[in-house]
Amino acid sequence: MADIPPNLDWVRAAPEDAEGPGPWIEIAFGEGDDGEAPVYIRETNDPDNVVTTNRRKWDAFVLGVQAGEFDHFVEGLEDAENSAP
């Protein structure tokens, strides 16, 4: 397992009005600004279990989410979209 820097600034991916402990996903960006700079991902209920990727892969994932490429993984999303006015 890669060494996780102790001074990371974890950002919680939760709605602003979210209450309670989650679990939520947290993201932290490591040093560097190129495509190989590390990105760390963890759940709030298991903060010692950290997944590491790089900025290039993270950016591709975010673009895919924004484009709806993963919508088929969300149960009930299609029904909600079909019932929208």
TrEMBL record:
Residues 9-65 form the DUF397 domain. Residues 1-21 are annotated as: Disordered. It comes from the Bacteria. InterPro entries: DUF397. This is DUF397 domain-containing protein.
